[in-house]
């Protein structure tokens, strides 16, 4: 059953229905396919036609341990690096400093060993399990550093697939100490919900240096992370739900790695609520858009495996997921235009005239399985892509060929074989165009779907705190009386959304409630022992000590039988952080650690000249908002954002007539920001400065005095904010023009210091158009302060 990608939706024969995950807390902008198209970049350091390197000529990481020679985290580059440097990855690695490489000049082989003749003729390599994990964590920390990434290792004891190690070429893999390793990007709206992309990193004894099964899978995961990070950066967004990039251990022993993770990290009755979808890459490449051995009449189909709605407890959810999968692939074919090499030269791909075949297999393969089956069994939608050369499907329909099983789990699973399979050079000595572009194809398709709003998504980045935590040793099955660790390493707050800088951790309070009525604990990493079996709701609250911004994450944990007598560590029940948490609405205006020592904005024709110096040297942000179109007040719309380090000029030639204000913000290292607002009128010819709409925040009695906007009218009220550094009586009077009688007067006793108070004036019929003065007086304070606004 095969269809062109454009008709994939019809092939699955589904109806679009609502997906299961709840709507995000914050709205997400439409997916920008122009930006997605711009991320397409299949060629990295290794190019089609280049000779493949010798296993003795190892690609080298840089001084920081990173391998990114093209600057794109290219999937083929990652694949080559891993295949040659870490040829064997199995349980019970004793050292993370084994010599890299195979030490054998042949691709797919390790040196024969006289002491272990069962490994001849393919040889035995040093175990690089721990070396690979170190490598993966370093790469992902670098790729995702702007998005609060945290890496975790989840240890478990693996089971051997066979105690007998055959000479060749069946499946055999040892057990022992094993690790699932993850790179986690916390979701800003739904940190407790997750999207997972996985591929196993362990190898069999009989295939010691595999290129295909499955080095290419997590090589693509690094590339996927780079594509998604590039999209988030270019669009000013971040994930809405938690995104997890997860290489599994012990897949070859019966998918033990993913089984263990699901059993210990996700409560079974919450699986479909917490895991939005599982994406698998084992193995995805060596298929579309490649031609089978370079034959221009025989493109290698790609299988898209999806959950079967008929066998799912939530068929509507599966149908919606599958329907969207078809749309994602259709959109990709519409957006991308490229060629692929065959024996007779390049052929066009991804065009309306030349659509590649995608085979839909709801039942997967007859002879092979992978980690996706463990997620599918829990009712979680799965998305798995692989080359259709692995034999018949579970429904009895044949694959394109059965060549894949002839070299899977053998030394022939190597760079040479994959190049001959996907290109015209049948020596395999050069990289094929099909090998290069099929790896990018797989990376792109997965990334596009995972960026969709109902998956990991792309929430507009903001300065709110983000609460996220994990539980160790495991969330599902803690032992009674034994200390568990609650780790908020993924929690953070952006101090600048454009620069991707973070609020200093000392300015955030971490408060824990364990759900067993034992009180609270404070700190980014705490320990707790439950005294009784049961299921408990755990809640983490992250609060900015200066602004009182708050975020929370909640999870259930299950505590089983145990004989432990552990006690919680002393002192964690007291908040020993740097300073108290401010009261709700507290301003504390004079506590900014990053104030402007000088700042000015002047109009010069159609330009605005910005000049400022921050007390803690560094850049500040300038944002231009339009608040009136012509004379008519409108909702504030941001029209420009600039990063300023000293001085700059904003070119406003294309700005339209109306009222604007320029907001300058200095955030420092997480203390309260220093904000300055400068209002302007834009005529047909130039900018013209208006009178002040806000005073600089200060440590004087009048700590804060500002207007929401320099213009009001229609549905837009005149909003006024006032705060004092000590209790007092304030009077806010609103005058039209030079009139001596106010059109409105507010009086209020402010009983709390540093607590913001709001006043607002509705633009009713008696509030006529014109200029207005807003005058603030404080009892016992000499003089008054005046701000200005226009009634449009």
Description of the molecule:
The structure is a single chain. The protein has 792 residues and is of the alpha+beta class. It folds into 3 domains: 2-460, Zn peptidases (Aminopeptidase, 3-Layer(aba) Sandwich), CATH 3.40.630; 469-560, Immunoglobulin-like (Sandwich), CATH 2.60.40; 589-791, Immunoglobulin-like, CATH 2.60.40. 16% of the residues lie in helices and 32% in strands. It is built from 12 helices and 40 strands. The strands form 10 sheets. The chain has a 9-stranded mixed sheet, with helices on both faces. Strands 16-24-23-20-21 form a 5-stranded mixed sheet. Strand 31 (674-682) and strand 32 form a beta hairpin.
H/I helix tally: 12
Distance between the termini: 65 Å
Query: In the CATH scheme, what's the topology name of the largest domain?
Result: Aminopeptidase
Outline the low-pLDDT stretches.
Answer: 1-24, 163-169
CATH architecture of the largest domain: 3-Layer(aba) Sandwich
In the residues, how many domains can be counted? 3
- Percent of residues in helices comes to 10-25%
Characteristic terms for this protein:
792 residues, alpha+beta, Aminopeptidase, Immunoglobulin-like, 12 helices
